[in-house]
Prior knowledge:
With 445 residues, the protein is of the alpha+beta class. The protein is 38% helix and 17% strand. It is built from 14 helices and 11 strands. The protein has helices spanning 4-7, 27-40, 50-61, 67-83, 85-88, 92-107, 148-151, 299-302, 315-318, 328-340, 351-361, 367-379, 383-398, 409-443, and strands at residues 161-167, 171-173, 179-181, 186-192, 196-204, 212-221, 231-236, 260-266, 270-275, 280-287, 290-298. The strands form 2 sheets. It has a 7-stranded antiparallel sheet with strand order 3-2-1-11-10-9-8. Strands 4-5-6-7 form a 4-stranded antiparallel sheet. The protein starts with a helix and ends with a helix.
Amino acid sequence: MQSPRERSEVRPRAGWMVMGKRGRPSALDVCRVLAVFLSLFPAVSLQCKILKCNSEFWASTSNSGPEEEFCTALRAYNSCVRRTARTCRGDLAYHSAQHGIEDLMSQHNCSKEGPTSQPRARTPVPPPSPPLLPDSQERSDGPEVCHYERSLPRNTAPPNYTHCGFFGDPHLRTFGDDFQTCKVEGAWPLIHNKYLSVQVTNTPVVPGSPATATSKLTIIFKNFQECVDQKMYHAETDELPAAFADGSKNGGDRHGANTLRVVEKVPGQHVEIQARYIGTTIVVRQVGRYLTFAVRMPEEVVNSVEEGDVQDLYLCLHGCPVNQRIDFRNFRARAAEAQSTSRTRAQGFTYQSAKDKCKDRLPVEDLYFQSCVFDLLSSGDINFTMAAYYAFEDVKMLHSNSKRHHIFENVIRNSAAQKGKDLLSLFLLNLLAVVLWIECCTAHL
């Protein structure tokens, strides 16, 4: 039996139908399409600067202006894209930009010859926008469906909120509270359901080491009923924006727009995205050179899978593939052995000095503490101490069960051992049933 919320849901559209003058796509539409390509294929080399070209062109054409100015900006955009040819060749977003430029030049009768000065964003004084209201004073005209808990059927149990975190070299805490250390180099999906998608791109921290860390993060919020338009948030190293990719800070022009908003907590270091229409809060941080991700999400939203979608690879739901996991207990044992034989690690931390440094911020020797030690030993980067510290601070803020804030190694081992015992018991019961069936058949012959 579907809930009223599910029955009334409008499936997200695959794209945009907005058209510019004379039915032609506007520059903004083209940039949006490019943004979607970037989100779907985030494994672009870090040297590929197609995103920078895209954002500069969008900034210079976001307001209407003379056709001559548009053509100048378009030629500058073309020059920028051509300069990325060597590092971006083979990337779908790069080739889409090339075709988009050709189409726009044809539509606007722009000559390929002419001034190509670097586009500068026009900054007219914007009209004053209404201030964002506190959580308890949301817009009164927002429909009930845009407020997650109020949209649930009456007399139902309160929703169960779950948490997923991804930080450090990297370490993953799944919605099911499994804790893993993974390799997962390149682009990997964390979450994908009817309401949003999250992908990360991880790069090696130290050449020759299996440890990686997150350098890019893309989140797509799909359009939902009368609440929000489709929005994309994209962050990468040294670029932690306080707005969505289109420059807005909320869910668009619909009645429930303020139920999706970006809130900058610390400029360039800490951003919070509140999606109250699906009861979700996302925290993105930059610590040192790398990004961390944490989310609080209702179980119903976590499990709202698209029909026919295979969920095996979504890390927050099922964890990292077995062949991508790192057993840091072995790593730790080797580090302790190296210390006992007086061998100093090239990165500058011994096992004991790494423990002492992590103890300053993480006094409880749980898996967050152990992940901190692992990161210092594998990278030598002191910033990973703060990455583990903030990851645990996010757990305290986002996890609904205070008794589950700390996760200990013996709990993980006991859980795995219990699963093994359960499987063994099931096997023995099935074997006993087969033996009894054979005995009965033999007795009747």
